[in-house]
Design goal:
8 helices, 189 residues
Amino acid sequence: MAKSILICGVGGQGTVLAAKIISQAAIQSGLHVMSAETIGMAQRGGSVTSHVRIGSDSYAPLVGENSADLLIAFEASEAVRNLHYLKPDATVIVNKGIVQPVTASLSGKTFSSDVMIEALKKKTKNVIAVDTESACKKLGSSKVVNMLLLGAACKSGNLETESIKAAMKNLVKPQFQELNLKALEYNGE
């Protein structure tokens, strides 16, 4: 049975690297993998969505509606935007942070992370909200959000920690591996 994973966020958050690490981990474990990205205006802070399908019965790279087993959301409103992909029993790993769209900022409207997370909980009971802002401050870098979220997915049992570590070591520059490993293993301390 294929495992379908959707990763979403906005440009510059590290979603594509996260998808590559998951794909590489599966390949190193001898599994069949298909993946694709929908990037669009990502360089300008637009939506980024990566699809990863793992398993010998994966025949297309895109995750279909109502078929994602795991959603890793780098931004809470992007998670809500992609709810239609989730199976009823899917797991959602979501960054508590919100990236306010320019249009909302200009109009004086704001998006609330709590409202977004409540909407996710109405779709599935398996929602894990990660305070990446606090964790990044403790780790000393805002560039490890992807590893914090992958670490949460590992802790939830949806990804295999050792294979993610091995893939990270292959894909992350040596000078950043120690920091990324700390983020992957981060437990709130």
